[in-house]
Predict the 3D structure of the following.
Amino acid sequence: MSDLLHLPANTTPDAICDAIAEHGGVIIDDLLDIETLTTLEAELRPYLEACASGTNAFAGFRTKRIGALIARSPTSRRLATHPLVTSASSQYLAPYCDHHQLHFSQAVAIGQGEGAQMLHRDRGVWGSTLTRAVETQFSTIWALTDFTHENGATRIVPGSHRWEKDRQPTDDEIVSAEMRAGSVLLYNGTVLHGGGENTTIHERVGVLLHYTLNWLRQEENQYLSCPPEIAKGLDPELRALMGYTLGGPVLGFYSTPGAPGQGVELAPPERLFETTTTSDTGPDAI
Ligand SMILES: O=C(O)CCC(=O)C(=O)O
Ligand SMILES: [Fe+2]
């Protein structure tokens, strides 16, 4: 089995985009330091402990999944806005939109005895009518633990983003995205991939942060997973990435309900977070 292409942490958005265009995915080695990994693990662990395993073949039966990472985990915010990743994502998706946005956040802990997830294309969430001429996604899976063939490293089929929809891979076309903790797998919405089988006694934990075009419906509803009362404490750049901004000239405006003349009309989302004084916003305010 040949390996997926690896790039060093000092690589460039151009190199990443070229690699994904050619192979559908690429690994950046050692992008996170040990302190970040430890903090991230500590923030996510209580939620993973409290969460039940999945109940279907796609989600897995021995796999735990938690969302709302931006609201729950301050360190995941740094991952979501990592400059190398967001530069590469916006560059990769630029032919299809005027901006990218956060689409999905999930920690995935694949447990002992879990089988391989079915191979799939993440663009499937929008059904089959969206033309392949539009690439839908730039996705990340950050390795919180080492990813090995044995513990469930993501399986990926390099080049399959250019295949006919129904072509099935042979075993030797499927690659395990093996990487050290702190590394990240980057891939598009069209390449075939899926979680691997875990034959070890250890969990394989990944943090999935996916980006999409700012005119497509987000898989994880960011306004419910991270509602305004939490979003108001976030960096404006991150809030905008989550969709608390206009997409193009008008997508996503809001008006407020309530008494006539009391609210705002046709306002950009940023209006929600404008403050008149600092004293009424509390310590979490922007
Ligand atoms: O956890 C993984 O390695 C991949 C999971 C995945 O592809 C998915 O759930 O869509
Ligand atoms: Fe997937």
